[in-house]
Design goal:
The chain is of the alpha+beta class and 136 residues long. The protein contains 7 helices and 4 strands, in the order ααααβαβαββα.
Length: 136
Amino acid sequence: MNRETFSRGKSFTEYTTSPESLRAYQQVSLSLEDQEFFSSLKLKVLCISEEWCKDCKREVPFIAYISDTAHWEMKIFRRDENPNLMKEYTTLGSRRIPVFVFFNADFNEVGRFIEKSPEGKTTLQALKEILTTASG
């Protein structure tokens, strides 16, 4: 990933046409502790998604809210319009979405969140585990 490719993505509000997704975004809330944790990281987030996908409808608004709250730059790419990007971030030979790839300022990957949180964990718990290594 590089800045030029990343910059071609869309913001959450540019990406979504779904009132359901906008409502989901507006209903997210984070504790002060979680806000401080995420804000302590300076990240860029690549998201590969499609609005028809159930997992995307749940995860994209949530992570977009975290990104906005933490002042991260998040760019969303539609999977079906970006086959080369999807190929680069294929998981276990499958085109699973959503894909969230977290980068530092130099576009070095620091973590990934694919599709949904592991069984028994919330998305918030999974993200904090993934990104704890990014915080040093």
